[in-house]
Write a structure and sequence with these properties.
By secondary structure, the chain is α+β, with helices and mostly antiparallel strands. The protein is built from three helices and six strands, in the order βββαββααβ. The protein has two domains: 38 residues, N-terminal domain of TfIIb (Single Sheet), CATH 2.20.25; 99 residues, K homology (KH) domain (GMP Synthetase, Chain A, domain 3, 2-Layer Sandwich). Helix 1 packs across helix 2. It is elongated, with a radius of gyration of 17 Å. It comes from Natronospirillum operosum.
Length: 141
């Protein structure tokens, strides 16, 4: 896996993944930025959410669950001192579908957290407390 980060001036950078996708990262105006992109630590948080949501959806699809939507809402706390690392992160999954089995959703969230989500496991090994929960919505109305 590879990535390249290019400075655009000020506090703005463009990251390019090895697969050719680009994302802009920028700082807030009080740190020389123009607020033209996500902060690097926001990218870490979004990466965790994407990694875990990918796992949850993959597991539910393999279980033949009729999922119509899946959203991961993340909240994080950071240390008050430098380095301002994440200390706690909570992932709340909102899974919508038809006749979803709660046991499958619970299992998918647990497997992502405990076995499959590399980002989550890496952050936990670094001392971040990560918690998960979920809610299920019916797409049937």
């Amino acid at each position: 896996m590879q990535a390249t980060i290019r400075w655009n001036g000020g506090a703005q950078f463009t990251g390019q993944s090895g697969s050719g996708h680009e994302v802009v990262m920028d700082g807030p105006p009080d740190h020389g930025g123009q607020n033209g992109g996500a902060r690097p630590m926001e990218m870490v948080l979004m990466g965790l959410g994407g990694c875990s949501a990918f796992d949850v959806m993959s597991i539910l699809q393999k279980a033949r669950q009729d999922v119509t939507d899946c959203k991961a809402e993340l909240t994080a706390e950071r240390a008050d001192s430098v380095p301002a690392v994440f200390t706690r992160i909570h992932l709340h999954f909102v899974v919508t579908g038809r006749e979803l089995k709660e046991s499958h959703v619970r299992r998918a969230v647990a497997l992502s957290a405990e076995k499959y989500c590399s980002a989550s496991i890496m952050l936990e090994k670094g001392g971040v407390e990560i918690t998960h929960d979920y809610e299920i919505h019916s797409a049937d109305g």
